[in-house]
Structure formats: C-alpha cells, structure tokens
Amino acid sequence: MQTAFLFDLDGTLIDSVYQHVLAWQRALKEAGIPLSVWRIHRKIGMSGGLFTQMLLRETGADITPELIERLSRLHAAAFNEISGGIGPLPGARELLAYLDEVQMPWTIATSGRMETAGPTLKGLGVDPDAKPVVTRDQVRYAKPDPDLFVTAAERLEIPIENCIVVGDSVWDLLAARRARALSIGLLSGGYGREELERAGAFRVFEDPADLLHHIDEVGVRRPSED
Which residues does UniProt call coiled coil (predicted)? Predict the structure, then answer.
C-alpha cells in the first residue's frame, strides 16, 4: 500500500504565519476595521474568503463581496511587501529531500493563492510546474473543507485514505479528518499541542526538523529497513 504526504505550506514548511497575520492586520486597518493580532492568528490556515467573512462577522462590519475582494487584494499586497526575509522552517528542505530519497510521494496543498504562495515555494526550492502543488485558485473550497487535500491526493494518483496530511493549524487537521486522511500536527504555526490533537492529529512534532528526526515513527523507512 503506497503512502503519500500532503503538506500545508505556511507555518508547516515556510516560517510565514506571523507575516500573514501582520499583512491581514494591515489590510483590515486600511479598510477601517481594527482587530487584535491574536484574533487574526486564530483564523490563519482558512481560505482567504472564509477568513475574512469570519473576521468581519466578529467585528460587526458589513460583509460585501466587494469588501472581501478588496481585503484579499490588500492582504496580498502587504504580504508580498513584507515577505522578503521569509524562509523555510528548520528541516523543511531536508525533510522533502529525504522523502524523495526514499521514493515517498509528496506534494503541497495550501489555502494561499499562487500570488502569495509562488515566491515562498521558490524559496523552498519547489517548482509548481514540476510538482503537483495545489493552491486555493484550483479548488472550489479551501480549508476547513477537504477539497485541497482530496485534489492533491488525486494529482498523486493515491487514495486519500492512504495519505498523511502535515499541517500546523486546526483548520488543516479538520480538513484532513473530513477527507478521511491521517494527520500530523506541527507546533511551528503557533497552535498548541492539545489543540492539534483535539483537531485530529495522531502525532505532534515541533517543526519539520523534529518530524524528520522521528520519521520512522510515522511509517517512513529506507528500503533497506523494510
């Protein structure tokens, strides 16, 4: 039975969660909607549309398609402006290289659109033309709906039930559960261990480096170790 890994991007492979938080805060402020940073952080990992709807619902602002679209554009512009120093999380590149070495299929499924995901994928060394990366642009609904992970599994031609989702937010793990996939939680996005376990993670690690250090514990072995 072939297994595959489906990775979230921001906070899972790329150290970009807090830049997204600040970009959303700047976008909301520019639209005249002040909101505390911690409230924004709790929503990171959702699709941008659902994210803005929930934030606007909390603030009592009038939700219109035009405002949601404006906030999305403002966030993308702010993120691209402040994301120059963003890089991979510790062990991210090494983890992906190891999976390639042992011939374990993997890909990335992110709630971000290619407009913001493209530069960070490049920094990670992932070519979306060579690897079947799935972004928000390519599915009807993003997390916590399962569409991103289901589509990623289809691109790898592996049943979703045989896949392991790796994510840093409860929204990643809820989407994995709805897709009927196992999931691993990482603490590198700012969520707590208990939160990730309650959302469905069967194992929780600190970051990609910690996952790689314990990779045999989630069923990944070199051929000589079979």
Answer: none
